[in-house]
What does this fold into?
Amino acid sequence: MVTKKTKKATKVVKKAAKTTKKAARKTAKKVLKKPAKKAAKKTVKKVTKKPAKTAKPVKAVKAVKKTAKKAKAVKVAKPVAIVNSTKKFVLAAAKLAKGLHCTDVVALDLRGISPATDYFLIATGTSSRQMQTVADEISQLARSDDLERFGKAGYQQGRWILLDFFDVIIHIFDSEYRDYYNMDMLWGDAKKLRT
It folds into this structure.
């Protein structure tokens, strides 16, 4: 049986939950930028899903501010450790390409020269099948180093295979395309890494 006290208590709890949501959203708009707003909304939903009998807007606001701090912490500049691991990956990929009989293997350091990537690896394959094998092995190496491949092009044709790992772009050419596009000269300002 529902009594007057129960109805009144239910109304108070619902009103407190609404107030909590409004206060949290207001704070989120002031404190956060767009990428972090989604995380803040999730936090607001979690906090206000099960309203307590004494729900206070302060709890939701604190939760939103905590989420904001986490979101800001994610937007940190690229650490040196990641750059070193990227460089190690390029050198390991170059060694792998040489081991799989690629010729003219060149690793270029494009930091400060190109806004698109940090490193290029350019290699010349002997046949389309061999080039595909090199591409597959380098992709496997990247997976073992926890690098995500964002794109792959030219794999089926086997004349110029491009693997995009964001910070590293790998070009595997056949000899005709390597001579025609002459990527070494195009990026002549770049520092060559010893492979």
In short: The chain has two domains: 4-74, 80-193.
